[in-house]
Write a structure and sequence with these properties.
The complex is a heterotrimer. Chain A is of the alpha/beta class. Chain A is built from 13 helices and 15 strands. In chain A, helix 8 links the parallel strand 5 and strand 6. The chains are: A alpha/beta, B alpha+beta, C alpha/beta.
């Protein structure tokens, strides 16, 4: 078997060195009734050729977004990742290395994470970032828990523009960890005003910018209102590319920024693995969950990096840890770091400009289709449409015309019939004008 | 003369009048390693005997510091913010954590004196 | 005749540490600055499509200030990250004996399969009719996990092991609450447990009650039974435990716990010892997370991403999180709202779980098959016992008897040498090995926990043994100073972690000279 190097000769010689008659002797502590005499009922081992056929057959039953005109967003975005990224992350020294607990032999990972932390702080306009979380939604839940620790309060307010999956994750954490989260009604029109709901019991207000419906707003006034009441403002960004063009959360007065970094360096991958971004102000750094990389010197006085402020983490504080997190999303953070290094200031801003411009073009074309109206005044690369009939069956029919037409609001809010005719549509640099014309034409045909 | 007493959790308290200065012992700091951060209690806070008063963090460990007596915090050592290493270099003096106005001086009798504490840590091995 | 045979005369050879170079590089060991120290304005590594001219719709919120990202070309970026990678130890470079991490070989077929466009280029919210293959793959993975563990249900969404623990413990809380047993709040956790266990229990609102180990390194069953009571919610047990030992009384522990009304959570980090040889269901567990990045070879990636699916018993099966895959007449479906008899406790993550890791894990499972998985477990246990046998006369095993897939030593063999477990590990780095897990589990003094995995050849293990025996001998011979100075042959010597924590520098910042230059 290609992954198991031992021959029978090896095994016999090792058993002799151990002084055991067979490997069964080494399992002697297993209760007799629990010992499996034979293999479990699953297929036997297979060579690469056979395995490839099986997996490829499963892959062939899916329609890749790239094979169609795809306009899907709502928390995951199809961007072009330069070829170098995937080559570099597959270098064995990155792919098969572990968490850098022995810094002398993992300076590659540590230096990269330091660069990643810097990149996240820069694009979000915040003071300090961590070395990544599982994804944007769990990062948002951890941000709420951090706000609770800082304010010693337990009531959070969630914007109606927050992605429903993020809201659900926060609510789940709250329900079982003992804090409350009050969610506003879905804000399809982008007009909600949360300031009036903040009181002396509020721990934090969580908003998303651009919102899940695509609206772009300045939350500086909301930040001031929150801070006046002793609460924190948490700003969520699910489309990291938007930070190339928009006023960042740090400049709006956010106390904590959380984001989904998938758009930079990482493929769609049917929803995971992704990479959560987390940043805050200097004064809150000791309350931040997750791993942190810090600069220091070695015994010869040369600059190097180590994991630091670890005493917040589970392996030391145990039941008093700031969170139970063990892993970050290392390889996805690496991909993010490499892609953003390739883009640089000019490339990142231009990429964001192209995304916005494509969305503006798309909004114009779709708005011109009879019966369709574009809800948003403002957006980055994603906006909401209202259709004259329910969006879900329409989207299904558009598949037949080669179009992945966006996310029906009913998919994200199945219990809100008043959103049934809403469709959330995204455009990125990967969409051509021909794609957009196809979408508009197909839409006109099926209506 | 200031009397000093010790708790089983390796805190010391030195009494002057009604107020005690509290820190961790030299033994404790040597067990912790290099101290990197200290979280001291707020002035004005009322603490019960044995309740958690502060947190001391080294690179590899974080420990709770408990108040050996009940009372009200009258001061916290601001020098530890910029120089947490004082806990290592001067655990029994400049590395103090907080001062507390005792609610009941009688509680000092429940603590060990210097000789008893020395014997106690010798027994810990 | 030239008798030197090409060898350099010894008189010309200076000690390597004293050789200076103008560049700061030392042969293939490169010094590499941060990207922020190498960028130039106007440089980029990406050529982008044309920018259409449109009137913006940004609500006046266009960014006014520069971000401050450096500009680099593609060759610079490739060189930068290549140089960084060369400073990392990895499984691909050598034995990685970290206990309970299962640093086995990461097959490259996994990477190829995960990158098939039909699996990598699908959006999580595409109409379900267009991703039937993805859902079928998740269903197949679920089938393998359920069959290997003997459990009837599985939740695939947790993003990593600790997330899986959270999932399992919430399900237990939900099941207890559904029976009106809110008063059950106490969770029993062995002292030897991984830190995520008590952290997770506390995060779910439980109180943690530590169970002592006996002198054989197992759960003290009498002490455990004495702690049972009407307020006990669960036990969190790792099996084999963090000392690398199978808990022989586990069936009795499960029986007593169930009789007392509690649930059995099993930390599956050490599943690699028993996969294919023992089914956790037969031991009486109610929930167990599986680390796909340990037992099932998905790559560690320098710290993640992981994947921590959780298998459940019938009792806990109704309390899974959303979403989950079902297979009915219409094909495969993703259930994202409450339906049927399921009482979902909520959602743990956006979207549907770590699909990229599901593909890799299933590829591994299909490659190994039921027979290969069983053989891998046996070889893992064989390898650890081989190390134990070859080291027990020079290092001090913490417990008597054979181990499972990892062997545990304490620091008694270093007593009076002036060499700590830490020093010993740092000296091992100079020998070309990543150190074993140190100072864990906490129940053993100066612990050294070694897990070789089934991927190592006998020759590789022998080489490791040679180095360890040499180090043990040198420590006893009073070479403490050399150990304190280790490592000396690495790109960086020991790093000042105290300074990093006292004066945290957590990002690069432009100095005033670079700021002026930019203006």
């Amino acid at each position: 078997m290609r992954y198991l190097p031992h021959t029978e000769h090896d095994r016999r010689s090792m058993l002799a060195a151990i002084g055991a008659a067979s490997v069964d002797d080494l399992y002697r502590d297993v209760p007799v009734a629990a010992r499996l005499e034979d293999h479990v009922d699953l297929p036997a081992h297979q060579g690469e050729l056979a395995v490839e056929r099986t997996i490829a057959a499963l892959a062939a039953k899916n329609r890749p977004a790239g094979s169609m005109a795809s306009f899907l967003g709502a928390g995951a975005y199809r961007h072009h990742v330069p070829a170098s990224v995937d080559h570099l992350i597959q270098r064995g020294e990155f792919l098969t290395s572990y968490t850098p607990y022995q810094p002398e032999v993992t300076q590659g990972t540590l230096q990269m994470l330091f660069e990643f932390q810097t990149q996240v702080a820069l694009i979000s306009g915040m003071d300090v970032a961590n070395a990544s979380m599982y994804d944007g939604a769990t990062a948002a839940a951890e941000a709420v828990m951090m706000a609770n620790r800082i304010t010693k309060r337990t009531k959070s307010i969630l914007s109606g523009g927050l992605h429903p999956h993020y809201r659900e994750v926060i609510e789940t954490y709250g329900r079982w960890s003992g804090f409350s989260a009050k969610a506003a009604m879905p804000d399809a029109a982008g007009v909600e005003d949360l300031a009036g709901q903040i009181d002396a019991d509020t721990s934090c207000v969580v908003v998303q910018n651009p919102s899940v419906f695509g609206h772009v707003r300045d939350h500086a006034a909301l930040a001031a209102a929150a801070q006046k009441a002793g609460a924190l403002l948490i700003v969520v960004v699910t489309e990291a590319v938007s930070l190339g063009l928009l006023k960042p959360p740090g400049e709006m007065g956010a106390d904590i920024f959380v984001g989904e970094g998938q758009s930079i360096g990482n493929a769609l991958n049917f929803g995971g693995p992704y990479v959560g971004l987390f940043a805050t102000r200097d004064k809150y750094v000791r309350q931040m969950p997750g791993r942190l990389t810090g600069e220091t010197v070695d015994a010869d006085g040369r600059r190097g990096w180590v994991l630091t402020l670890s005493t917040r983490e589970q392996h030391i504080r145990r039941e008093k840890a700031t969170s139970n997190i063990c892993t970050n999303s290392g390889l996805c953070a690496l991909a993010f770091c490499i892609h953003l290094s390739l883009l640089g200031e000019d490339g990142f801003t231009r990429l964001a400009e192209i995304n916005h411009a494509h969305a503006v073009q798309l909004a114009e074309k779709l708005g011109g289709v009879k019966g369709i109206s574009v809800v948003n005044d403002s957006f980055f690369n994603e906006f909401a449409l209202t259709l004259p009939e329910p969006a879900s069956p329409l989207v299904e029919r558009l598949v037949g015309k080669g179009v992945l037409a966006g996310v029906p609001a009913a998919r994200l809010w199945p219990d809100k019939p008043d959103l049934a005719n809403h469709l959330i549509v995204a455009a990125t640099e990967t969409n051509t004008e021909a794609d957009m014309d196809l979408f508009a034409r197909a839409l006109a045909e099926v209506l | 003369m200031a009397e000093i007493r010790f708790s089983k959790e390796h805190e010391w308290i030195r009494l002057e009048g009604d107020t005690g200065t509290v820190g961790i012992t030299d033994y404790a700091q040597s067990q912790l390693g290099d101290v990197v951060f200290v979280e001291v209690p707020e002035v004005g806070r009322k603490i019960a005997k044995g309740a958690q008063a502060a947190v001391v963090e080294s690179v590899k460990a974080a420990s709770e510091v408990y108040s050996p007596v009940a009372g009200e915090v009258t001061a916290a050592n601001a020098a530890l913010a910029d120089n947490p290493g004082l806990v290592n270099s001067a655990a029994m003096g400049e590395g103090w954590f907080f001062k507390i106005k005792l609610a009941d001086k009688g509680e000092l009798d429940e603590l060990m004196d210097e000789a008893a504490y020395k014997a106690y840590i010798a027994g810990l091995g | 005749m030239d008798k030197s045979q090409g060898r350099i005369a010894r008189e010309d050879a200076a000690p390597t540490a004293e050789i200076a170079t103008a560049s700061g590089h030392r042969g293939l060991q490169m010094e590499e600055k941060l990207i922020f120290e190498q960028g130039e304005p106007g440089r980029t590594g990406v050529d982008l499509p044309d920018l259409p001219k449109v009137a913006d719709r940004l609500n006046g919120l266009k960014r006014q200030r520069a971000i401050g990202l450096p500009g680099l070309s593609e060759p610079q970026v490739v060189r930068h990250f290549t140089r960084l990678s060369q400073k990392n130890y990895a499984i691909d470079s050598g034995l990685y004996p970290l206990g309970s991490c299962t640093m086995k070989h990461n097959p490259r077929l996994n990477e190829k399969m995960a990158r098939l466009p039909g699996l990598a280029d699908i959006h999580p919210l595409q109409p379900v009719s267009t991703v039937q293959g993805a859902l079928e793959l998740m269903d197949q993975l679920a089938h393998w996990l359920k069959t290997l563990t003997g459990m009837p249900a599985v939740a695939l969404t947790p993003g990593a092991g600790a997330h899986g623990e959270f999932c399992g413990m919430i399900a237990i809380r939900a099941a207890l609450d559904a029976k009106g047993q809110q008063a059950r709040k106490r969770v029993l956790v062995p002292e030897s447990a991984h830190g995520t266990n008590p952290a997770t229990a506390a995060a779910c609102g439980f109180t943690v009650d530590a169970i002592p180990a006996d002198d054989r390194g197992r759960v003290d069953v009498a002490a455990f039974k004495a702690k049972l009571g009407p307020d006990v919610a669960a036990i969190m047990l790792t099996n084999p435990n963090t000392c690398g030992l199978f808990e022989p009384d586990i069936v009795e522990i499960a029986r007593a716990l169930h009789e007392a009304g509690g649930y059995f959570y099993c930390d599956g980090a050490n599943f690699n010892a028993i996969a294919g040889r023992v089914r956790p269901a037969d031991l009486g567990i109610d929930a167990m997370h599986i680390n796909l990045h340990k037992t099932f070879s998905t790559p560690h990636g320098g710290g993640g991403p992981g994947s921590g699916p959780v298998v459940f018993s019938e009792a806990l099966a109704p309390y899974v999180p959303l979403p989950y895959v079902v297979h009915d007449k219409g094909g495969f479906r993703l259930v994202e709202t409450k339906e049927g008899k399921v009482e979902p406790f909520g959602r743990l993550k956006a979207f549907h779980g770590q699909m990229g890791m599901f593909v890799r894990a299933l590829t591994y499972m299909l490659s190994h098959g039921a027979d290969g998985i069983r053989q891998a477990s046996e070889d893992a246990v064989l390898n650890a016992n081989y190390l134990l046998a070859r080291l027990r006369d020079v290092m001090t095993p913490a417990f008597d008897g054979p181990c499972m897939h990892e062997c545990l030593f304490d620091d008694a063999f270093l007593k009076d040498s002036g060499v700590s477990t830490l020093d010993f590990a740092k000296a091992l780095i100079d020998e070309g090995f990543h150190p074993m897990t140190m100072y864990f589990p906490l129940v053993v003094h100066g612990a050294l926990l070694i897990e070789p995995t089934e991927s190592e050849t006998k020759a590789s293990l022998d080489e490791f043994v040679t180095s360890l025996r040499s180090l043990a001998s040198r420590a006893r011979q009073g070479e403490a100073a050399a150990f304190h100075a280790a490592p000396r042959l690495t790109p960086r010597r020991r790093l000042d972690e105290t300074r990093a924590a006292r004066q945290p520098v957590l990002r690069w910042k432009p100095t005033s000279t670079t700021r002026q230059a930019a203006e």
